[in-house]
Design goal:
single chain; alpha+beta; Rossmann fold; Phosphatase 2c, domain 1; 2 domains; 6-stranded antiparallel sheet; 18 strands; 23% strand; rod-shaped; Sigma-B regulation protein RsbU (Phosphoserine phosphatase); phosphoprotein; Sig_transdc_resp-reg_receiver; CheY-like_superfamily
Length: 446
């Protein structure tokens, strides 16, 4: 084994400064831990003495087994190991150290008198990071250690960043799980705003469908009694979908809930009796309240109306909502309404009320644009023509069965994927006049 070349006037302090090795603190504010492995005590002493005074934490081992025993207790940052040693060679020691240090990288420098390129390449392939040819100069040794330190600094930084990323991902998973639980509860609360069963009375039935595209959505449908033989119905759709739209929907629901004027802004006192406001007045009132009370970029569309269950006469206002559909008893389809602007866009907006008639066996469908704007396989929206075709196909289905058939048709259009928009519908099936229609409030069926 060759001796270390200690020639030259460079001191350890000079070498430290020239090679960039700091005399204080390593990557993690502790001295760099270096293990020297050589079966020659003299060679170990020479290497150790050249590293003294540089704030390294030094250790030595006389063979590979002793080195492994040390590594199992305290993992070094850098190993300086002779290649040729009795028993396990330095290259074999490198592989064993790699198995011990899966969570922390150890920079491994092989000391050798070999000079053949093939053998040196073999050492690198087996896991060594660098090698020094004997005799070793102090300047070169410190330079290789400085190079190792730079690599270890990068490795430690990446490890720390990975740790922070992992911790952040775990926190995000926990937050996502908590948010998911909250959204599930929010979905239950939103679904409770819509009656879960058909509202039945002697003059016909009112059925409901609500299917958010995510956990929660911005659609809402509902009905409420407006007199001894009249019923109010509405369908609304807040722009967008998701949490913000759902919160606005809940707020709007509170404006249309209840059977008295102090609970429901659609109602008013007509002497001692309760009556429904004209539909256009309801839209105008909601427009003024929405703009005055809610600071948001959202708006909503709505169709709201009243049906006299004795005569089948109805009146409605369409505020930017899809055209209501009437399917006659013979299966023919009429789309009614005059369009109108959405609610919440401009102050003092004006809306129009229009009238319609239902004959026995007719049915009225209010729905959101999640139905007519659902894309088909070729990317074309279903539109009113597609909805009319569905209604003709299922003309003999009634109530919930019809609404769910429409939902199944849309699911088939998107290959059972999530619907791209919230879906809602309200179906009034008019059976004809009754001497004493028995209206049931939605609260009794929710």
């Amino acid at each position: 084994m060759g001796g270390m070349d200690m020639s030259g006037d460079m001191t350890n302090d000079d070498a430290c400064e020239e090679t960039g090795i700091a005399r204080h603190g390593a990557m993690d504010d502790r001295p760099l831990r270096i293990l020297v492995v050589d079966d020659s005590r003299l060679q170990r002493r020479i290497l150790m003495s050249s590293l003294q005074g540089l704030s390294f934490e030094l250790a030595e081992a006389g063979d590979a087994e002793e080195a492994l025993a040390y590594c199992r207790e305290t993992l070094p940052d850098i190993v300086l190991s002779d290649w040729m040693m009795p028993g396990m060679t330095g290259i074999e020691l490198c592989g064993a150290v790699r198995e011990l240090s899966a969570a922390q990288y150890v920079y491994f420098i092989v000391l050798t008198s070999k000079s053949e390129k093939g053998e040196l390449a073999h050492a690198l392939r087996e896991g060594a990071d660098d090698f020094l040819s004997k005799p070793v100069s102090a300047e070169e040794l410190l330079g290789r250690i400085a190079a190792g330190r730079r690599l270890l600094d990068v490795e430690r930084q990446l490890t720390e960043k990975n740790r922070l990323v992992t911790e952040t991902l775990e926190k995000m998973r926990a937050l996502h799980a908590a948010l998911d639980r909250d959204l599930i509860e929010a979905r239950k609360l939103q679904m409770s705003l819509v009656p879960r069963t058909t509202v039945r009375h002697q003059a016909g039935t009112v059925s409901f469908l609500l299917q958010p595209s995510g956990h929660v959505g911005g659609d809402l449908v509902g009905s409420f009694p407006t007199g001894p033989s009249r019923i109010g119905v509405f369908s609304l759709d807040v722009s967008g979908h998701g949490i913000a739209s759902a919160l606005l929907t809940a707020r709007l629901s509170s404006w249309l809930t209840g059977n008295t004027p102090d609970q429901n802004i659609a109602l008013r006192w007509d002497g001692p009796e309760i009556a429904m406001r004209p539909p256009h007045e309801i839209c105008e009132k909601m427009n003024d309240m929405f703009i005055a009370e809610i600071d948001t970029v959202h708006y909503f569309t709505m169709a709201i109306g009243e049906i006299d269950l004795q005569t089948g006469r109805g009146q409605m206002c369409q505020a930017g909502h899809p055209h209501p559909l009437i399917q006659r008893a013979d299966g023919e389809i009429d789309f009614i309404g005059e369009g109108g602007m959405p609610i919440g866009l401009i102050n003092s907006a004006e809306f129009q009320t229009f009238e319609f008639d239902l004959a026995p066996g007719d049915r009225l469908l209010l729905y959101s644009d999640g139905l007519t704007e659902c894309p088909t396989d070729d990317g074309v929206m279903l539109e009113e023509e597609g909805l009319a075709e569905f209604m003709r196909r299922y003309r003999h289905e009634v109530g919930d069965r019809l609404l769910h058939a429409l939902k199944w048709e849309l699911s088939a259009l998107v290959n059972d994927a999530d619907l791209p928009d919230d879906l809602s519908g309200l179906l009034v099936e008019y059976a004809g006049s009754s001497p004493s229609p028995d209206l049931t409030s939605p609260e009794e069926h929710s």
